[in-house]
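Contributing new records

If you add data, match the layout below exactly. Sequence lines come first and carry their own label; structure lines follow with theirs. Keep one chain per record. Anything else will be rejected by the validation script.
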Amino acid sequence: MDYPATAKWYDRRDSVFVEFCVEDSKDVHVNFDRSKMDFSCISGTDNIKQQNTVELFGEIDPKESKHRRTDRSVLCCLRKAETGKSWPRLTKDKTKCNWLSVDFNNWKDWEDDSDEDLSSFDKFSEMMNSMGGDDLPDLDGADDEVFFYIYI
């Protein structure tokens, strides 16, 4: 039986970041398409299949989009096809999905930012796009962050 994996996301100038929270999971698959993203895994001791197909708000560059597995989540960096275009939501569908939340801790209004003022997440995005998908290095202290879930 398929269940959606809980996810949080935030928008940046060049990329959109999506983190699927999948503690104790295996058989993780992430596929990028210009207008959608497919995610699946087997989680828990009950081997529950979790799956999300997201029809994206805007188009992405699938070849430049990457994902990285951590202990408890899968972080996806979706490289926007149109740099500088803001995404007010992740999906084309305006319906509020109960499995999807906004990560306000990492959300930043970048509309008026200059290119010299890159945040650490923009630098991380550049690093992800310059490296391979699954073999990205662990970030020091990444497991120490605390995230708050606010469902919209």
